[in-house]
Hints:
alpha+beta, Arc Repressor Mutant, subunit A, two-stranded antiparallel sheet, 4 strands, 15% strand, elongated
Amino acid sequence: MPTKKPAEAQEPGPDAPDYELDDYVTAETPEQIKALGDATRKTILALLLDRAATTTHLAAALGKPKGTVGYHLNVLEDVGLIRVVRTAKVRAMTEKYYGRVGRTILYQGVPGGSKLFMLQQAMDEVVIEEGAALPMFTLRHLRISQERAVEFAARVIELSEEFLALPREGDTVWGFVAGVYPTDQPVLVAEEGDE
Length: 195
């Protein structure tokens, strides 16, 4: 299981938000899990991985009214998943810039009540264009020990972190979804003489 790294360990740069944040934060309260079950709030959290943003910035990116975005920001702030990372004076008003508290959110519950919520989100947001090289998916099955499956899952997490550390560039936001899970696939019984 990943360990929480302190905020001062995160160096802002082209591959990181322009504010300090922990590598991991755990969402474990019912309020946090409920907050993460909303599509708009998940999108806000994804946008804040690029850089800190104001309500105005997020409303423009989402194409939603500032009041709606402000409501979702308040929910995320109230449950401790985002925070104000800086402020700026704009025409005698103070604008708040919001940022995440952790780069990766570890779930200790299930947003929206489904253990497959991440797969559902990927299915909902995938864009398929005729003739395009991506998306690409693969599905494999293998009978291995639980210990080996846990080791492999840790490697998947490392790969996802490598994906998130890439420099922000281009005009398309790409998704990455992967998992290691038990199945109900049958197992061949060993024949006599098999080891």
